[in-house]
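Q: Given only this backbone (276 positions), what sequence would you predict?
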């Protein structure tokens, strides 16, 4: 089923609820890859129906970011979703999501502070607002988000908890290329030379985690990883050990600790994370 209007979406969701006990939402911005397919597969777990949204959300892009450049492939996306068992696709336009006179947005503190929140001012306002709108439109029992965008996952969980929204947020492990590079729609913008270097981000995080587990101080392990990345040609924006739920910096390893990083290669900004 394909829905482009709210009336069509409501009809599709009513049909699915009549047939399935559980409805899962998979929010995406399109340009789908194997990471998105993993979200759909996770959403199907337990015999659930899956509704995938495709909407390039302008509210989460700053003026200097790549909204116009963001890859779009509606025909390819629809074929991929059909092949992996998605039941319905929600394809709203901007006027549907943000109609004239729309004045409500959602500001998030806590896990939205720092890191991506500092690098991309207003980004998590856009994420929180569009996700809350999607939750209200689809009324899912659960929604699947990838762990590659770890901070985003924590922000969405915080919004759902704070607003008492009646759904469960499911984190799905990061899907990687055979060489370890985390899948991202923006990877297609890497030059051939940058694509050779890009997989070094994840091993640098793994090395830092091993160093900490071996007794190195957090500061020392992070400094070694940053040096390795800079020598490889990355421009490191941040590299930190944080509490996995609150995103607050940690000075020592702890339960639920997460290593997070953002680094640039040319025009492409890469993010990654792993438990530490």
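A: Predicted residues:
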């Amino acid at each position: 089923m394909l829905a482009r209007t709210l009336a069509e979406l409501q009809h599709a969701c009513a049909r699915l609820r009549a047939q399935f006990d559980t409805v899962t939402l998979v929010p995406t911005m399109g340009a789908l890859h194997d990471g998105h397919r993993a979200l759909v597969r996770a959403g199907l777990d337990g015999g659930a129906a899956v509704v995938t949204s495709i909407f390039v959300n302008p509210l989460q892009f700053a003026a200097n970011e790549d909204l116009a450049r963001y890859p779009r492939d509606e025909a390819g996306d629809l074929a991929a979703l059909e092949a992996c068992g998605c039941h319905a696709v929600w394809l709203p336009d901007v006027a549907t999501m943000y109609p004239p006179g729309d004045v409500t947005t959602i500001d998030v503190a806590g896990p939205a502070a720092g890191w991506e929140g500092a690098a991309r001012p207003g980004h998590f306002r856009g994420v929180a607002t569009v996700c809350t709108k999607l939750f209200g439109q689809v009324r899912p029992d659960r929604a699947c988000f990838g762990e590659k965008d770890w901070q985003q996952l924590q922000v969405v969980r915080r919004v759902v908890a704070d607003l008492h929204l009646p759904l469960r947020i499911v984190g799905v492990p990061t899907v990687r290329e055979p060489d370890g590079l985390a899948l991202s729609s923006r990877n297609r913008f890497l030059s051939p030379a940058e694509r050779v270097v890009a997989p070094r981000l994840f091993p640098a995080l793994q090395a830092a985690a091993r160093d900490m587990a071996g007794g190195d101080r957090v500061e020392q392990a992070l400094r070694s990883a940053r040096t390795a990345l800079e020598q490889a040609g990355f421009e490191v924006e941040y590299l930190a050990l944080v509490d996995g739920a609150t995103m607050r910096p940690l000075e020592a390893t702890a339960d639920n600790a997460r290593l997070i990083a953002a680094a640039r290669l040319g025009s492409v900004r890469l993010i990654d994370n792993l438990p530490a």
